[in-house]
Amino acid sequence: MAHQECINCKTTYSVDEIVYFCKKCGESLEIKFDFEELTEATKTSDWRAKPFSVWRYRPFMPIHESTDIVTLGEGGTGFHKSKRLGSQLGTKYLYIKNEGENPTGSFKDRGMTVGVTKAVELGAHHVICASTGNTSAALAAYAARAGIRCTVLIPSGKIAYGKLSQAMIHGAKVLQVKGNFDEALEFVLKLAEKHKDIYLLNSINPFRIEGQKSLGYEICEQLNYEAPDRIIIPVGNAGNISAVWKGLKEFHQLGLIKKLPKMTGIQASGSAPIAQAIKTGSDKIVPVDYPETIATAIRIGAPVSWKKAVNAIRESGGTAETVTDVEILDAQKTLARVEGIFVEPASASSIAGLKKLIKNGTINKDENVVCITTGHGLKDPDTAIKQCETPIEVDANISIIEEALGLKKNIQY
């Protein structure tokens, strides 16, 4: 019912063939379905009766029916109507889709449950990725669940310990490469090409994207089979924005939603090749050699899925914007204190981007907007602590505590 297809020359490959790039032109691949068969499969399946999760949508996934899935209960994340924050920012209809509620605390779990399931289906016993943090945490967890070996290459420099600790405790072999993420990715690509028993699970793997597209499905279902006017999403290696767009297009083609939203990508100003390409109307990105941002999850200068992301933004009539680290941290604190949702800095970039786009008139107050927050705040607690007030040490005395809290003492008669 499905095959792999080059996004450029349209060469096709079986879903049972291990291939990461088109053998003819070198471009990336995506999964394509026979929609007549898919329509029939979704009609005969009881998928709507199943609880919200990635595997609610098993008929939409390129996994054989007989394959045992590798799952930790991912998907079905919270969809929060954010009246207070929307009012503060100047928009009437704002929802937060909080992917930090996934098992390892980020949206990466959606892709890894399908990717690792496919790895097992293909007979792989060793999986690998390059990562700035969340990918390594998710891959390590799902590899442990499947009982297969996991190797992670991380770049030099600061890696949030909340993420690194997850990869390590789940038993991954972690190598820190003296270089940036893009260089680490080059090495894992070479290793997967050289050693056929190693299965690559970065977002260039189209089966990862299949899991992540379920995020688009869920948003529409949580809005009673309506697509919002706009979806705002952080962009790093660019797999997620294209995955969400793929899911939305599939729901639309199947007649499950009537319209499609504008996809809006947000990048940190020190790591923004896709945003710059969109702003200048370029058909190519200019990689950033030394990407810098406090939002380590999107600190990627040469995103491997940039063509898919640019296509998603332009095809949907959306846009891209950049935000500074100051704007990101302010958005992180605001979201936590106004809506009670604690996210890591990269996740808060969608909120920072929303604020900026409302201010410059790109988004009007009547739009129905969904901001995707991609990872939990406990992924990087050090950054959160640094921008908060330090605890006040007081003596164990009720009067002193009342004074510190600014409380008036009750007068006893």
Question: Your description of this structure?
Answer:
With 413 residues, the chain is an alpha/beta fold. The chain has a domain at 78-105 and 209-381: Rossmann fold, CATH 3.40.50. The protein is built from 15 helices and 13 strands. Helix 5 (161-169) links the parallel strand 7 and strand 8 (173-177). Helix 7 (206-212) crosses helix 9 (239-253) and helix 12 crosses helix 13. The radius of gyration is 22 Å and the shape is globular.
Which CATH architecture of the domain at 78-105 and 209-381 would you pick?
3-Layer(aba) Sandwich
Low-confidence stretches: none
Radius of gyration: 22 Å
User: What's the CATH first level of the domain at 78-105 and 209-381?
Assistant: Alpha Beta
Alpha-beta content class = alpha/beta
CATH topology of the domain at 78-105 and 209-381: Rossmann fold
The 3D shape can be described as: globular
How are the strands ordered across the major sheet?
4-5-13-10-11-12
Would you summarize the structure shown here?
Strand 6, helix 4 and strand 7 form a beta-alpha-beta unit.
Walk me through the topology.
Layout: E1 2-6, E2 12-13, E3 29-33, H1 35-44, E4 78-81, H2 83-89, E5 93-98, H3 108-121, E6 126-130, H4 134-146, E7 149-155, H5 161-169, E8 173-177, H6 181-194, E9 198-200, H7 206-212, H8 214-222, E10 230-234, H9 239-253, E11 262-268, H10 273-280, H11 306-315, E12 319-323, H12 325-339, H13 345-359, E13 368-373, H14 381-386, H15 398-405
Parallel strand pairs: 5-13, 6-7, 6-9, 7-8, 10-11, 10-13, 11-12
Antiparallel strand pairs: 1-2, 1-3, 4-5
